[in-house]
Amino acid sequence: MASAARWSIADSAALYGLERWGEPYFSLNARGHVIVQPRGDRGGALDLVELVQGLQGRNLSLPLLIRFDDILEDRLERLHAAFERAIAQYGYAGRYQGVFPVKCNQQRHVVEQLAESGRRWHFGLEAGSKAELLIALSLVDDPEALLICNGYKDQRYIETAILARRLGRQPVVVIEQADEVERIIRASRELGAAPFIGIRAKLSSRSTGRWGSSVGEKAKFGLAIPEVLATVEALRAAGLLADLRLLHFHVGSQINDIAVLKDALQEAGQIYVELTKLGAPMGFLDVGGGLGIDYDGSRTATAASTNYSLQNYANDVVATVRECCEPHGVTVPTLVSESGRAIASHFSVLVFDVLGCGGVLGSDGTAGAIPPAADGEPLVVRNLRDTLAGITSSDNRPDTSRLQEAWNDAIKFKDDALAAFRLGYLSLPQRALAEQLTWACAEAIVARLPAGAGGSSGGPIPDDLRALAAALAGTYYANLSVFRSAPDTWAIEQLFPLMPIHRLDEQPTRLGHFADLTCDSDGKLARFIGDGQAKPLLELHALREGEPYWIGMFLGGAYQEVMGNLHNLFGSTNAVHIRLAPGGGYQVDHVVRGNTNAQVLEAMEHQPELLLERLRMASEAAIQRGDLKISDARRLMDHLETSLRQTTYLQE
Ligand SMILES: *Cc1c(COP(=O)(O)O)cnc(C)c1O
Q1: Which of 148, 89, 99 is nearest to 316 (CA)?
Q2: Which of 147, 253, 254 to probe ligand 1 with, by most ligand atoms within 8 A of CB?
């Protein structure tokens, strides 16, 4: 491990795993800032710190969600390129034609961007509800693009899909529940027109991972094999079998293990073949979502990772489907995937500021200057001073057993100090001094550990001393709500890469975790990407007086925004869409202002004007009573009115 003097940006890149999860979009520059290459390795880079400063100059305060539309486009390109390569490699006689599941990120500018960028591949959308269907029908007008209609469907949903065909759209109504076929038949009779029909099969293949229950006999969606057969016969009887065009399955989100997908593909491939034998024209096989993201860069079949690449995935889909169809002489289908997470995760970066740092050390990361010894100090305090001197005086690095001994002494004296305080022999300032000395001992010991701040490498370190670094950890107060901006970290222990976006040429000397603005003890970020397994503390820098400390949360572009809630009435953050400008630098394409306090109050049916009016009346009464000066009343009302117009987060 490098010493503080030799710390380089390469050390930071390794420490935060940037090379493992950040490629090809995020890296570091010589100034120790995170840079973003929105077009991957095709050139163009933005200094994230300068970008945030530029946005602040446009009156966009932190926390700020920065969406890089170029990344979104690059992800689409990579997905299509992977399938094109696989199709060429395996001599697949069909095409790939994907859709984006709108539920992954329904934000207008995001879906519009995807619809626009995806046009050249006839890229479509997947909807799981009537509102999402409305988005899909209105934003994609390419007659060749697929609009996959999933989710529970009532008569109106189905009729809407059928009628939309007359607009030149291509909605596919996927039968997910056994009773939906009757509704489709009824709607078709009524309207004298049929939809494109799909069937979602409930596969019995094994599954793993958090969403493993999306498949198997107990899955919420999909038809069991007897139901598939009954549906085919019902469609045949109603004269609609010629409209059965698509077989769909969905293994669950974030498939960690490629073997799970292979099993599912084989089973679905055989069902597809059987459906053609039953007389359905078919033509499309929709392999659902689930294409995973390697959040921790470990390349393993663990929750925050995947044991395959995008190319492996495409290869397996293409090769397996071909292997199923060929022996039966069945024409291979157009391959559809509903990859959401894989398309939308990378493109948004959440940047938030740290408001302060708590813990046993000061926010500067030190125990502070120890006041000189006074005459007549109690014995415990003198003992602690001696212990500290013993640790710091030796020039050579003391061996760990001596450090351990010194720490045992310090802890004993601290306990003595507490006992003396309880019995009235120690004043409050003396107790404070004893605690300060104890943490100064700890600080001095940690600085002398072979492993430095993290205590994660080097020689054998006694467990007590390892725990010491954790005891000195700081709580970094983050200007954000986890429940709004990173709900999956709380709900399902999702890991997102988190790291400072500047000072990366400096060795981080502290360990810490983040506490958010809510009054909820779950409102914290305390799981970080580690080597092999998640770690509870992240290496961070001591705060510097008057200087901001900015943290980036990466790979959160999928699901976080819509799953986020209004806990403590913290609303959406400011969001911006950034594009590389043709002449270098960047342009701000869209600004989406975060919720104001007035908006979140209205969401709970309050009337901001009425709330203000009540307080105005209370102020007036206080003025009449002589309890409030007119100038103070005005200041109070100004603050309230300004707050209503501002976002819900702390302002600088
Ligand atoms: C959620 C969902 C998806 C998207 O899954 P990702 O893992 O984000 O790719 C696709 N299809 C269906 C049916 C879904 O429910």
Answers
A1: 89
A2: 253
In the reported structure, the alpha carbon of residue 313 is separated from the centroid of ligand 1 by a whole-number distance in angstroms of 15
How far, rounded to the nearest angstrom, does the alpha carbon of residue 208 sit from its chain's CA centroid?
Answer: 21
For position 463, what pLDDT does the model report?
Answer: 80
Ligand 1 atom closest to 254 (CA): 7
Cα(583)–Cα(461) distance, rounded to whole angstroms?
54
What does the pLDDT average to over 275-299?
96
Each domain of the chain, given as residue ranges in start order, spans 379-469, 609-645
Cα-based torsion angle of the residue sequence 254, 255, 258, 261 in order, rounded to the nearest 10 degrees: -130
Cα–Cα distance, 401 to 412 (Å, whole number)? 17
Token pair, residue 409, equals: 């002494």
Q: Alpha-carbon distance 525 to 497, whole Å? A: 11
What's the whole-model pTM score? 0.93
Hey, which residues does 651 pair with through a beta bridge? none
Question: How many angstroms is it from 209 CA to the middle of ligand 1?
Answer: 14
Residue 255, exposed/middle/buried by CB under 10 A (0-12, 13-18, 19+)? Answer: buried
Candidate from 338, 341, 494 with most ligand 1 atoms within 8 A of CB, to mutate: 338
**Euclidean distance between CA atoms 344 and 294, whole angstroms:** 13
How far apart CA 145 and CA 161 sit, in angstroms, is: 14
Q: Report the separation in Å between the CA atom of 153 and the middle of ligand 1, taken as the mean of its atom positions.
A: 17
Give tens-digit pLDDT for 166-185: 999 999 999 999 999 999 99
pLDDT bucket at 454, cuts 50 / 70 / 90:
very low
* 71 CA distance to ligand 1 middle (Å): 20
Ligand 1 contacts CB of residue 207 (under 6 A): no
Q: Would you tell me which CATH number, out of the four given (3.30.70, 1.20.58, 1.10.8, 3.40.50), belongs to the domain 379-469?
A: 1.20.58
What's the average model confidence in pLDDT over 635-648? 97
DSSP state of 210: T
Residue 215 has pLDDT above 70, yes or no: no
Residue 601 has pLDDT above 50, yes or no: yes
CB within 8 A of 19, min separation 6: which ones? 13, 27, 297
C-alpha 303 to ligand 1 mean position (Å): 16
How many angstroms separate the CA atoms of 641 and 643, rounded?
A: 5
d(CA 49, CA 347): 17
Given the DSSP bridges, would you call strands 348-358 and 64-68 parallel, antiparallel or unpaired? Answer: antiparallel
Pocket test for ligand 1, best of 150, 173, 250, 306 (most atoms within 8 A of CB): 250
| Contact call for residues 66 and 550 (beta carbons, < 8 A) | no
Q: Residues 36, 107, 150, CA angle at the centre, nearest 5°?
A: 120
C-alpha of 239 from chain center: 46
**Tokens 């094109």 identify what position?**
84
DSSP state, residue 458: S
